[in-house]
Design brief:
disordered N terminus, 5-stranded parallel beta sheet, 3-stranded antiparallel beta sheet, about 325 residues, alpha/beta
């Protein structure tokens, strides 16, 4: 009888508060994902700051950043281009030669270390080494090997154009108000003796792979954060302390290949989850850094991989449009 009385008293006690009880639909998988329209996801992005209508925007990063850059231009944003294509180059060849993709002709910047070294080079605080690669008697800038598919006819031409490029990047960093940067990879090939980071492995587009000179480096969370913080500090110095804003994204495009000793699915998950964690950390720590969830919008399970082409890597045009619709809800097109 005593036990029955105890049970009775317990059942009559008021229920404990449920910390999930009054949360919005976006907080639950069922209502926020499973039954939500993936083309109109409520609450997936709330801007941390506004972008002024006259803000000068610079874009850089991995290949997905090209889509963002194009959409910003088409919606009235003042996207900088410090290395425009020459007038005599046909428009259909602009992208093939590295023009009109980003705010400078740096090609894809896949890693934060690559971004940091570019800024250090522009500021005259660091000198890249082993940057001229050859192929079939032609010469390539190893730090942006895809900007000229045929290469250049001399090493001196590579040096001359790189000097001009670095000066242009310095002026870009001085002039921008907002930097949109897409984090792409953690894996990178480096020069063993100088630490120079390359966007591609030697022997792919140009150059020759030599294990004595090159090694794979797969960055971890702490060093990526440290590299970006160094870049952030350097950008402030280049700008003489003038403030700027950063909008980070993570590329949803999977790795083409991995040189790490793991399956490509495992390597891809490591890379993207690490970069996503970095972006979240930086957003939380810096008032001038925001994160836009293009990665989550594209890889939403509700879409069942329809965001990608048949190769499951290339993002479909309609998926990019979906991403930017969510962006422009918070940062409306500029008339």
């Amino acid at each position: 009888m005593i036990e029955l009385g105890f049970v009775s008293r317990m059942s009559e006690a008021p229920s404990m508060a449920n910390p999930y009880k009054n949360l919005p639909p976006s907080s639950f998988w069922k209502t926020g994902v499973a039954s939500e329209n993936p083309y109109n996801i409520e609450g997936i992005y709330k801007k941390k700051f506004s972008i002024a209508s006259n803000a000068k925007v610079a874009t850089a990063g991995s290949c997905f950043a090209q889509h963002i850059s194009h959409a910003l231009k088409n919606n009235g944003y003042q996207v900088l281009d410090v290395e425009p294509p020459p007038p005599n180059l046909p428009q259909e060849l602009h992208h093939k030669h590295g023009y009109s993709l980003y705010s400078a002709r740096y090609g894809n910047i896949y890693t934060v270390r690559q971004l940091l070294q570019l800024a250090q080079e522009a500021a005259g605080e660091w000198q890249a080494q082993n940057i001229i690669w050859g192929k079939n008697g032609r010469f390539y800038d190893a730090l942006r090997p895809s900007i000229n598919p045929e290469g250049f006819d001399s090493e001196s031409k590579v040096v001359q154009l790189r000097s001009q490029h670095v000066k242009s990047v310095y002026s870009l960093f001085q002039d921008l108000d907002v930097l949109v940067f897409t984090l792409g990879l953690t894996e990178a090939w480096t020069h063993k003796f100088s630490g120079t980071v390359y966007p591609t492995a030697p022997g792919t587009i140009a150059g020759t792979f030599d294990q004595a000179n090159f090694q794979l480096h797969n960055s971890q969370f702490p060093e990526i954060v440290k590299d970006f913080e160094k870049f952030h500090e350097l950008l402030l110095r280049i700008r003489d302390g003038r403030p700027f804003q950063v909008l980070l994204t993570v590329s949803p495009v999977p790795l083409t290949a991995t040189a790490a000793p793991s399956h490509i699915l495992v390597s891809n998950t490591y890379s993207k989850s690490t970069l996503r964690a970095v972006a979240g950390h930086l957003q939380a720590q810096y008032p001038n850094i925001d994160y836009f969830p293009s990665f989550e919008i594209v890889t939403n399970p509700r879409l069942h991989s329809t965001s990608f082409e048949e190769n499951l890597r290339s993002v479909r045009g309609e998926a990019v449009e979906n991403v930017m619709r969510h962006f422009f809800k918070e940062h409306p097109p500029i008339a």
